[in-house]
Design brief:
By secondary structure, the protein is mostly helical. It is 77% helix and 0% strand. The longest helix has 21 residues, at 3-23.
């Protein structure tokens, strides 16, 4: 690849990366995969990733905290959020750290209680046993811990 072609490739790749970041924050691994899938050279991609990290436009820790907060507002449980962050290429240690910090500020049982009360209205005409099972399944799919689910379900 000559200098002119390399410069054009670099500009295209950087433009693509910035467009992706314009839509929503992304992890460095997620951005890397998207760029490689688009067909950009791995060396060019690595250079752009490093440049974006250096400028602060790409920050896995900030991304993980923002993603966690966004998903807690849905509400989702920490198990599911941790899996999503791992899928996005966030290192396990960082996922654990962010989740540990969130647990200090989040009352999971209260989140489950509110969500279960809202969802239970949908199952009001269903047999009580089936209703409890459906609620448990729904809450488990949302990633809440079984201990929090059981505390709430026992009260229903």
């Amino acid at each position: 690849m000559d200098g002119t072609t390399g410069t054009i490739e670099l500009k295209k790749a950087k433009g693509y990366a910035l467009r992706l970041l314009k839509f929503r924050p992304r992890s460095s691994d997620e951005l890397r995969r998207k760029m490689l899938d688009k067909g950009f050279d791995s060396g060019v991609v690595a250079g752009i990733i490093q440049e974006l990290i250096g400028t602060g436009l790409l920050d896995d820790a900030a991304f993980a905290r923002a993603w966690l907060q966004y998903r807690l507002n849905k509400p989702m449980g920490l198990r599911r959020i941790a899996l999503e962050l791992a899928d996005k290429g966030i290192p396990k240690e960082l996922v654990e750290s962010v989740c540990r910090q969130a647990m200090e500020n989040v009352d999971e049982v209260e989140m489950v209680r509110r969500l279960a009360a809202k969802r239970a209205r949908k199952y009001s005409d269903v047999d009580p046993l089936k209703r409890r099972k459906r609620l448990m399944d729904y809450l488990a799919r949302r990633g809440f811990s079984m201990s929090a689910i059981m505390k709430v379900i026992r009260g229903i």
